[in-house]
Amino acid sequence: xxxxxxxxxxxxxxxxxxxxxxxxxxxxxxxxxxxxxxxxxxxxxxxxxxxxxxxxxxxxxxxxxxxxxxxxxxxxxxxxxxxxxxxxxxxxxxxxxxxxxxxxxxxxxxxxxxxxxxxxxxxxxxxxxxxxxxxxxxxxxxxx
Length: 144
Ligand SMILES: [Zn+2]
Prior knowledge:
Structural class: mainly alpha
Shape: elongated
Bound molecules: zinc ion
Number of helices: 5
């Protein structure tokens, strides 16, 4: 939402709120209720969606904080990987570790499959590839 649209909506909310108060003072309850609804609606809508610019900035920051996937390994590097290959679903990193108690994983709690990615701070279930080639294909897809 553009900044001026938000300002106009806030203005409408303030004006209709004022009208509501005046109507209340003069005992026009039904009219006051209707104007009050308009005031509340205008206020809620003006608050509901963040600025387009702000949303774009946040999306850009999110994209920047996510590291690029590791390069697709060549045949020799791929052959060094142990099968099955367990990797981070967010960034494709293979150096993930099991989540500890500080990440909310409790032994025997059914969450022992949780992993932590030291590269992108992903916490959750890892991706497992039975074949190295499947992992390579996944990396290629991550790279776009
Ligand atoms: Zn990761």
